Amino acid sequence: MNPLIIRGIRERLRIKNLIASGLLSLILCSTLYLAAFLDGMQTWVPAAVSSSGKDELLSIPLNGAREAFTVLLILQGFYLMFLGTGRVASGTAEEKESGLLDYQRMTPMSPLSKITGYLFGLPSREYLMFLITLPFLLHCMVVGEIPPLNLAQLYAVFFCSVLLYHLTAHVIGMVVARPRAASWVARLAVLGLYVFLPVLGQAGISFLSFLTIIPTYFGKILPHLLAEGTEKLGRFEGQAVAFWQEVPFFTIQVSPTMFTFAMQGMILLGLLFTAYRKWRLDSLPALSKPLGLGLFVILQFLLLGSLWPFFSLGEASGLLGHALQLDPAKTGLPNQLKHDAQPAIAMIVVQAIFFLLNLAAVLLLINVCCPNPHRRLKGIQRKEKLGIHRIPSLADESPGGIFAIILSLIVSLAFACLHFLAVSSEQVNSVSSSLNTVFLPSLLFLCTSLSLRAAREQWFNLGFWGYVGLLWLTPVLACLVLAVDDLLGNSQFMLYLSALSPLTFFPQLITYVSPSLLSEASQFANFSMPVSTGISSAILLALVLTIRLFSYQKT
Amino acid sequence: MIEVRDLKIHYGDLVAVDQLCFSVKAGSIFGLIGPNGAGKTSAIKAIATLLEPTYGDIWVKEISALHQPEKARKLLGYMPDFPPVYEDLKIWEFCDLFAHAYGLVGEHRKASVLQSLHATGLKEQMNAPCRTLSRGMRQRALLAKTLVHDPAVLLLDEPAANLDPKSRIDLRNILKKLAGNGKTILLSSHVLSEIEDTCDTLGFMKAGKMALCGTIDEITRSNRQNCLLKIHLSRAVPNLLKVIDQISILSEFKETGTEGTRFRASMNGGEKEATEVLAQLVNAGLPVAGFICHRPSVEDLFLQIESQPTVEKQAE
């Protein structure tokens, strides 16, 4: 057995702890489970169905078990996904801070064994608490007649998600210096990555939804949780089940369980590489440049696959995606809303999300993979010592200019693919605007990437994040204040202001290059000048920061 | 056994270790001395493969610690200056964890744990939880953990920092025994008297550089300009200063008493030169009643090197 798992058991599951945590879990689980079970068991049977010919309250254990299942699943998720994740993050960070992690780093165990040991050893108490809930699950399955195969699929995805969350926490624990901060940063990151980000999956980027157990729960379990005598699910549940039965990806349909495994597996792989590097040497950046590029290519593949049905057929996954389907007849929305669900708006929303998601990914990759001034100095010293002409371009210390350009090119290529797919399938009418539609957002993306790279390489964390906060967030916040002050009066000024931040400029630019919507939007403001100003300022900023970086590096 | 060549370590703009070169022979105990911030811990961490140097070469038993860290780690036992332990483990469990992690199994593992606990005097307390240990006892537990996989090279950063005098003597005996068994030991310390008694080779670090390196004998011999002479005459002599002026290797001649019979002088030379000085004094008719040649101790050298002006530690 892995010595680190044994250590976790010895540390956290001594007799006293074992009894205390076991009892706590048993009491909590039995209380919640029984309350939900008894509540769900009481079923009103209408007179039409009742054998006595009048309304009566019957006790149906099957309904109770089905009602209690979701409560049980939430409790299990709380144990392993919330408590367990916090424990892995804080435990890892505490050991990093105290130096214990260095002892482990020096042992000849493989990094994979060490990672396994930490993932299963640190939350050993939470696993015990989970184990205590299993008899209740068995009762649920037998009495509630939930198909074991579907349950097995759900729990396979559940454990895959737990592993993903714990690994995220482990990596955060190794990266964040302070243990208390690490515990909460990990929980927030898990919430952000696996709860808030999947919301974007509702806007057509389906793969983001599959970072959680929700699609498998809705697709595989919810239809089997209907109370006896109920013929179909409620409107929302019914829609959710329908959406997650099959996942459209490029031109094929994939099972939600398989798709979740594939998505989570890819992220697990990325996190494993990061943890491996950190286990090898703490001072290494979380990702190397080739690995960063590899992950970015995978992200583009997933984005393309998810958005393909939308750009080729006008079909989107997710609830919002469904409402924004290009064919208003398919929306299923009331007549009043159908008018608003214009294809152009849907196109702009999806394109803006595409760029903003890529912007977030590029920000993360440039922050991790491009060298800060200290690492760069190390590279220069090594280069001079070894007498080589230049730092190898794939080394962690090498300048990130080419890296930033490649990232931008990949995004431009993916965007061009989607645009020309939409043009060829006549989802977008005008071909004449293609040059502007692809070129201007790509140019803006390139300038933003180069500015970020220049900021990363000449400033430390405070300067870099200060730059991002000042240039990206301040204009957005100022626009919000102006919008509250006067919704339309300041619209022209707001356009100029929002053109300074990539967060707001991308949707603005996409609106500008979409002729069908521009004509309507132009009634409120003139887009031409703010767009020119935004593009010019992005180019200028990239140039100034890059020149400043060169002069800084020369000195 | 350990070879460090041209090692440079930066922390941002600060140069923590600069062009450090030294080697430690198998079976010897090498003491790294220096004031706070001299770069001792950084150098030890780099050898332990825990810190990425800017450049340089580190070889442990002909294995490059920079290019093959996993291989080098098998040979190393590292003990940091501040002793962190797993608070909720018992002492034997703490050692057992690392014995297991280093691949020891079954009875061999059990025997290794007991042996390391015995060597560090912790066998009696092996069932005590680590959280109840004093700082000195933690240091011992950590040493036990470091010894448990029988490493060929021990890297000990301030191993005696928290130990009481008895424990220090025990530690010294343990280290000497280990060195006698062929282990190579590199340790850093501020307790200079301990280092002098324990180590056979010393390296003085200052501002990231090795200011002086060699065996204790070599170092004290090569630094003979501050050899101190104590001269005691049986009676006061009027022409004493005239005689002293003729001996060119003497300097800083001072009277230490009030009767004109006790004096102190610095001498540029070793024992041979001291004999010559004594002969010159006797030949000049001085009534020499006592003559002591006091060679500089490690502590004297440390203070001497530390008092020399430092070079600004900035990146090139």
Put the structure in a nutshell:
Chain A is an all-alpha fold and 555 residues long. Chain A has helices spanning 3-12, 15-41, 61-98, 100-106, 111-121, 124-132, 134-144, 148-175, 179-200, 214-221, 235-243, 256-280, 289-313, 319-323, 335-338, 343-369, 373-386, 401-424, 434-458, 461-485, 491-498, 502-512, 515-521, 528-554; strands spanning 42-45, 56-59, 247-249, 252-254.
Explain how this protein is built.
The complex is a heterodimer of chains A (555) and B (316). With 555 residues, chain A is an all-alpha fold. Chain A has 2 domains: 3-284, no CATH class; 290-555, no CATH class. Chain A has 24 helices and 4 strands. Chain A has helices at residues 3-12, 15-41, 61-98, 100-106, 111-121, 124-132, 134-144, 148-175, 179-200, 214-221, 235-243, 256-280, 289-313, 319-323, 335-338, 343-369, 373-386, 401-424, 434-458, 461-485, 491-498, 502-512, 515-521, 528-554; strands at residues 42-45, 56-59, 247-249, 252-254. In chain A, the strands form 2 sheets. Chain A has a two-stranded antiparallel sheet. In chain A, strands 3-4 form a two-stranded antiparallel sheet. Chain A is globular and about 85 Å long. Chain B is an alpha/beta fold. Chain B has 2 domains: 2-221, Rossmann fold (3-Layer(aba) Sandwich); 224-295, Alpha-Beta Plaits. In chain B, 36% of the residues lie in helices and 28% in strands. Chain B has 11 helices and 14 strands. Chain B has helices at 40-47, 69-75, 91-101, 106-119, 135-147, 165-180, 192-198, 216-222, 240-246, 271-283, 298-307; strands at residues 2-11, 14-24, 29-33, 55-60, 63-64, 76-79, 153-157, 184-188, 201-206, 209-215, 227-233, 250-255, 262-267, 288-294. In chain B, a hairpin with a 2-residue loop joins strand 9 (201-206) and strand 10. In chain B, helix 3 packs parallel to helix 5 (135-147). Chain B is elongated, with a radius of gyration of 24 Å. The relative contact order of chain B is 0.14. The model of chain B is unreliable at 311-316 (pLDDT under 50). The interface between A and B is medium-sized, with 32 and 36 residues.
